[in-house]
Structures are given as C-alpha cells and as structure tokens.
Write a structure and sequence with these properties.
40% of the residues lie in helices and 18% in strands. With 263 residues, the chain is α/β, with parallel strands linked by helices. It has two domains: 126 residues, Rossmann fold (3-Layer(aba) Sandwich), CATH 3.40.50.10090; 129 residues, Rossmann fold. The strands form two sheets. It has a six-stranded mixed beta sheet. Strand 7, helix 6 and strand 8 form a beta-alpha-beta unit. It is globular and about 60 Å long. The model has no long low-confidence stretch (mean pLDDT 90). GO terms for molecular function: uroporphyrinogen-III synthase activity. This is Uroporphyrinogen-III synthase.
Length: 263
C-alpha cells in the first residue's frame, strides 16, 4: 500500500498540487516547511513599486514574490516586461490578471529547468544594457540573477518583498513528523532551503527525546523517498545523506507523472 504524499511547499502554493495528487487516489499531507510572511516595514517596497513604469524589466523570483508585490499594485504598466522562472509564477501572475495575451512575459522554455540560469538565457540581455531592471524577491536568496543582469550591463535594483523562515518546532509539528516517519511516504521537496530546515527541525526533535542516542529522526527521514524538480535540490539532498531520490524536472505535470510511476 502506498504511503502518503507529503507536500512541503509554502501553504499558499500547496493547495492546487494537493488537489491534483488527491485526484490520483493518494493520501495527501500538507506540511509547509517554509513560512512566508510580509515584511515588517512595507514602505520601501511600496515606494519601489510606485516607480514600476521606470523599469524596462521586472523579474519575480517566485510566486510568493508575485503575491507579495501585487498586494500593492493596482495596474501593471503595459509597457514593462515581466520575467518569471516557471509555471507556478505564470499561474500566480494570471491570478492577478497578468496574462501573455495582454503583457509581455518572459520565462524559460517548457523543456528546460525553471530557474534563474535558464531565465537569464531566455532574456535578450544585450537589449537590457544600460537599462533599469528590478528584481523582486525574498529578504534573502541567490544572487545569480542579479549578478547575471549586472554582467550584461543592466542597472539592477533589488526589492525584498517577503520573509521566508523555517517553522518553529512545536508539539503539534513534532507529533506530525513522528507520525509521518513511522511509514514510507513520498515527499515532494521543491526548495533546498526547506530540506535543510527540515533536517534542522528533526535534529532538534531528537534532542527532546529521553533517549536521544537511540532516537534518530534524521536517519529515519533519510530513508524516505524524495521527489524533487531540480538538480540543485537533488544535490542538496545527496549532501544531506538522502539516497532515495526521483528527479523530475520542472513543473507540476512532471511531479504528478513521477507519483503515478510510484503506484
């Protein structure tokens, strides 16, 4: 009997995938491993977004960046190109009324990974030389996109729009993790940061056990099957001691196909 499918995306992005997994007849557990919160001070973000029309291109690093920014955007300037890394971000834009038939949206091709590297390849970097570009992202994150745009001569501004954090270990979360680790499940992991955070939570959980030397939740987690969409996450998993990995490539369709092959 197949175990549960554990979806570890932030809560706002988990529901659509959870519904599609349930439609396959699988038991679904939604276990967000990253909490997404607004910035304490929204004023710098609001001031930047008030000048959207000044930019030749605005790049969003994630659906969370889109949702956080569009909380302050009434109307997208039609002359400003948008850039996103994947399917989830295109869906998030569409939810805010920004669709390819009305606006110019650049993203990696469907047959390549959804990441900053391939978004840079999809952009006309020569046309951005000397022009202002805005990157909207979390408080922390990879610098690759900004570095790549600067190397091409673009004038890059970066606007933090939200805060990511690993959830605290509560009694409820600890009980959920112990229950999930008591059987074999398929874990959908879509963030290296989330996987590192999970291992940290499990290590903390073990320290609370009366016989910590005999109780190792991290080892139990390493025996679980991970389904990951990107080679960078697979590399993180390998470095953390995971060996049961399925690398699917980008997009929910590939994640779902991998789950069907597990049945």
């Amino acid at each position: 009997m197949a175990g549960a499918v554990v979806i570890t995306r932030p809560l706002a992005q988990a529901a659509p995938l959870a519904a599609r997994v349930a439609a396959l007849g699988r038991t679904v557990e939604v276990l967000p491993l990253l909490d997404i919160a607004p910035l304490a001070d929204q004023r710098p973000l609001q001031a930047t977004l008030a000048r959207l029309a000044d930019y030749a291109l605005v790049a969003f690093v994630s659906p969370n960046a889109i949702d956080a920014a569009f909380a302050h955007i009434k109307q997208w300037p039609p002359e400003v190109t948008l850039a996103v890394v994947g399917e989830g971000s295109r869906t998030a834009l569409a939810a805010h009324g920004v669709t390819p038939d009305r606006y110019r949206i650049v993203c990696p091709a469907d047959n390549v990974p959804s990441d900053s590297e391939h978004l840079l390849q999809a952009l006309d970097l020569a046309a951005l030389k000397g022009r202002p570009v805005l990157i909207i992202r979390g408080e922390s994150g990879r610098e690759l996109m900004g570095d790549g745009l600067r190397a091409a001569g673009a004038l890059v501004d970066v606007a933090p729009a939200y805060r990511r954090s690993v959830p605290p270990l509560t009694a409820e979360l600890g009980a959920t993790l112990r229950r999930l680790l008591a059987q074999q499940n398929d874990w959908i992991i879509t963030s290296s940061e989330a996987l590192r955070g999970l291992c940290g939570i499990l290590a903390e959980l073990d320290l609370q056990h009366p016989d910590a030397m005999q109780h190792n939740s991290v080892v139990a987690m390493q025996q679980q099957h991970l389904i990951v969409p990107h080679a960078r996450i697979a590399e993180t998993a390998n470095n953390l001691g995971f060996s049961k990995l399925t690398l699917t490539g980008s997009g929910d369709e590939r994640l779902l196909a991998a789950l069907q092959s597990c049945l």
